[in-house]
Structure formats: structure tokens, C-alpha cells
Amino acid sequence: MSEIILSNETVQLINLASKHSGALIKDCVVEDDRIIFVVEKGQLGIAIGNKAKNLEKLRQLFKKNIKFVEFDQDQKRFIQNLCKPHQITNILIEGDETARVVKIEVSPRDKSKLIGKDGRNINMIRKLAQRHHPIKDVQIS
Predict the structure, then answer these.
(1) CA distance 54 to 47
(2) Closest to 75 (Cα-Cα) out of 137, 18, 4, 119
(3) Closest residue by Cα to residue 46 from 68, 78, 29
């Protein structure tokens, strides 16, 4: 787990999203056409809003796809949250503190969706997992 360093742009995005959603936001990653916000545990419903109105408001404000992910101290639960809405059958964590590898088992029909075009979804899962937990790699089987 590396120390999370937020740029001025990221801090501004977090502040704007917090202001419009009322949720406590821990982290934010911007990638091309989407922004992924990591919200504090228990804040996911607040972030999305009643009938997803906060989500829609932020989509219009930022002109990008928005995704909220709930943080969890438990590595398996956090990985599961990162993989939503896809159905995970099992999460296996191997290795010690310095070289943990997470292996995600997913149904064959969800595998390609979880990986994403050119690996963009799995790369984002890997990046966020490494930012918040001592994880070296995330693999899908």
C-alpha cells in the first residue's frame, strides 16, 4: 500500500462531489471518460442518493461516467466492492505482507466484463486495491 497523494485537481473533484452528494469521499481516480470515487464505509447510499439523483447530478457536472465504490478495511470485501456489479464466486489472497496477490474467481460470463476493453476495468481494480491495501497484484481466473 502506497501513500495516497492527491493532486489539486483530484482534491477539487473530491470536494465538489462531497458537496453535491453529502458523502464522505476518501479517494478519487480519473481515467479518460470516467471518475471513480472511493467513499467511506457506510456512505455508498448517501453518495448515490435517492433514485440515483446524486450520481446523475455528478455525471452532468463532470461530463463523465461516475462510479462510487465503498471502502472497507477488509481486503476481500474491498476487492468485492471494486468488482461490483459483477458476481464474484471467490476471492483468494496469497502471499505475505510484502507480496500479496489477490486471485478473483468469477463466472465465465462476467469474466470479460470484469477485465474490460483493453484491460481497463482490471487495471482500475488493481490500481485502487494497491492504493488502499498492501496488494502487489490482482488477477482474474
Answers:
(1) 7
(2) 137
(3) 68
Contact 1, 131 (CB under 8 A): yes
Asked if domains 8-70 and 75-140 share a fold, the reply is: yes
- With 0.90 as the threshold, say if the pTM is over it: yes
Q: 477488509: which residue's cell?
A: 74
Class at the top of the CATH hierarchy for domain 75-140: alpha beta
pLDDT in tens, 82-117: 999 998 999 999 988 778 999 999 999 999 999 999
Q: Which CATH class is domain 8-70?
A: alpha beta
List b or e across 82-112, with b for residues whose CB sees 16 or more CB atoms inside 10 angstroms. Answer: bbeebebeebeeeeeeeebebebebeeebee
Neighbours of 127 (CB within 10 A): 15
Residue-level length of the chain: 141
- Sign of torsion, CA 79 141 100 122? negative
